[in-house]
Specification:
About 30% of the residues lie in helices and about 20% in strands. The protein is an alpha/beta fold and about 425 residues long. The chain starts with 5 loop residues before the first helix and ends with a strand. Bound molecules: alpha-D-galactopyranose. The site of alpha-D-galactopyranose has 10 residues, from loops.
Length: about 425
């Protein structure tokens, strides 16, 4: 083949032929597209604190319908969940038909959602809440319904036209797809559609989303699916479901990747789904200490007073929603009691003692003997130099100061959840 140098090519021609103009135009368009891609981004600032809401999956699976959503929206208002900070109502897998229509559009199941998604989103919005949907980066969702692969931009436009505010995006049927690229495609599609959407990455931590998720979504799952038990693992053959303690301990060291607008998502909660009250308290406390999104997964139409009390514990939620957005960590593990700490705004700290033992634990804790330290946040709680007031957040009572040895009884699988405030 003849090797022509560029300058020879241009110098050998005196004026540009129509084909050259086309070439120049194509190059220009390519550069433009490249620049647009460089500037593609997620919607910034939608999740300055971990998103709070409800998702249908843990309790209902694909057995979902429009009256359920309306009932949940009403429950948010009537039970004080909206006032406690919960905003998003998210329909998980199974809202669409298994096949797209003739134009390639997703079709909400007409039997489950006869009024359509726009009407449902309107109902949710009228109550001051936000509406979310689920889909999947693969051809099929995990339950076998129509996935988004190859239809990302079309689906994003459809979500925008319905008024969707939140998209949970799963990872089934994704053979040969690159996770980061697939999630970026959907991010760009949502951005191009123009309606701000919280983008929830759900690839179970398989492709280290904490390393690339910050500029892609607002939160990313860190594990396979949760199940309603304290510390179990349910083996399904090719994958497992996990008790909340397993999820809390599964990924070491990823707290440094979380922060405002990009959170480690420990999965939808199982509070109110059959564990003991002590376990539900521990579950909610850990999700708060770890700055995970607080997405309820129980049936709010039949919620008990005890469960509601946990889910609306104002002072625990304040730990989760702390504006610094620092994910807490396990500071010590001794005699089956885990001590979790989380630096908070204003120089405060949250400290959570979690009793993993099957019997009550009698705690004696000398603050001066265990100076709390978080090198990531560059914070140290030096109780020798400064005294802090102690507040028991679940029992809503003051427990003296860090100047005294703390003594308390913690039931099996329960927590003592504290806030230390500088005097
Ligand atoms: C995956 C997700 C779950 C749920 C189901 C739906 O397992 O991790 O949270 O969305 O799919 O099929």
């Amino acid at each position: 083949m003849k090797n022509i140098k560029l300058q020879d090519y241009f110098s050998s021609r005196t004026s540009a032929a129509p084909a050259d103009y086309l070439l120049i135009l194509a190059a220009f368009l390519l550069i433009l597209a490249g620049t647009a891609k460089l500037h593609a981004q997620k919607f910034e600032g939608l999740a300055p604190t971990p998103p709070m809401g409800w998702n249908s999956w843990n309790t209902f699976g694909t057995d979902i319908h429009e009256q359920l959503v309306r009932d949940i929206a009403d429950a948010f208002v009537e039970l004080g969940l909206r006032d406690a900070g919960y905003r998003y109502i998210v329909l998980d897998d199974g809202w669409m038909l298994r096949e797209r229509d003739g134009n390639g559009n997703l079709v909400p199941d007409p039997e489950k959602f006869p009024s359509g998604m726009k009407a449902l989103a309107d109902y949710v919005h009228e109550r001051g809440l936000k509406f979310g949907l689920y889909n999947c980066a693969g051809d099929k969702t995990c339950a076998g319904y129509a996935g988004s692969r190859g239809h990302e931009y079309q689906d994003a436009l459809q979500y925008a036209s319905w008024g969707v505010d939140y998209l949970k995006y799963d990872w089934c049927s994704t053979e040969k797809l690159n996770a980061e690229e697939a999630y970026k495609t959907m991010r760009d599609a949502l951005h191009a559609a123009g309606r701000p959407v919280v983008f929830s990455i759900c690839e179970w931590g398989d492709n280290d989303p904490w390393l690339w998720g910050k500029n892609v979504g607002h939160m990313w799952r860190t594990s396979g699916d949760i199940i309603n038990c304290f510390d179990c693992q349910l083996d399904h053959g090719t994958y497992s479901s996990w008790g909340f303690m397993k999820i809390a301990h599964m990924r070491k060291g990823i707290r440094i990747y979380a922060g405002p607008d990009h959170w480690n998502d420990l999965d939808m909660m199982e509070v109110g789904n059959g564990m003991s009250q002590a376990e539900d308290r521990s579950h909610f406390a850990l999700w708060s200490m770890m700055a995970s999104p607080l997405i309820m997964g129980n049936d709010l139409r039949i919620v008990s007073d005890e469960t509601l009390e946990i889910l609306t514990s104002e002072e625990i939620i304040a730990v989760n929603q702390d504006p610094l957005g620092i994910q807490g960590f396990m500071f010590m593990d001794e005699q089956g009691v885990e001590i979790w700490v989380k630096p908070l705004g204003g120089g405060d700290w949250a400290v959570c003692f979690l009793n993993r033992n099957d019997v009550t634990f009698r705690l004696k804790w000398d603050w001066n003997y265990h100076p709390l330290e978080d090198s990531f946040a560059a914070r140290r709680l030096d109780t020798g130099r400064r005294t802090f007031c102690i507040r028991d957040l679940y029992n809503k009572e003051n427990l003296g100061t860090t100047g005294e040895v703390l003594e308390a009884e913690i039931q099996a699988h329960d927590v003592l959840m504290l806030r230390l405030s500088a005097q």
